[in-house]
């Protein structure tokens, strides 16, 4: 499973825009992560992991 697929599954029915706002990042950046165009930097990885109460390793490795 790719990082983007993991992120999509975790997001569920929430919109990318709503989640990006909750994380404090641009919706276009979050879309790039879900579409596997880019990998988030370490700071954003930590924000995403904390949001889902998971470790960075569980999501990104």
Automatic annotation (TrEMBL):
Domain HTH cro/C1-type: 6-59
UniProt entry tagged with the keyword Disulfide bond: no
Keyword Transcription: no
Keywords: DNA-binding
SMART domains in alphabetical order: HTH_XRE
Superkingdom to which the source organism belongs: Bacteria
InterPro entries hit by this protein: Cro/C1-type_HTH, Lambda_DNA-bd_dom_sf
GO-annotated molecular function: DNA binding
Gene3D superfamilies in the cross-refs: lambda repressor-like DNA-binding domains
Chain coiled-coil ranges: none
PROSITE patterns: HTH_CROC1
Protein name stated in the entry: Helix-turn-helix domain-containing protein
Species assigned in the record: Fusobacterium necrophorum
Lineage, top ranks: Bacteria, Fusobacteriati, Fusobacteriota, Fusobacteriia, Fusobacteriales
């Amino acid at each position: 499973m790719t990082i983007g697929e993991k992120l999509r599954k975790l997001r569920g029915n929430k919109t990318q825009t709503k989640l990006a706002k909750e994380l404090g990042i641009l919706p276009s950046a979050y879309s790039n992560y879900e579409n596997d165009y880019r990998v988030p930097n370490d700071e954003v990885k930590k924000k995403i992991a904390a949001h889902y109460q998971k470790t960075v390793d569980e999501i990104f490795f």
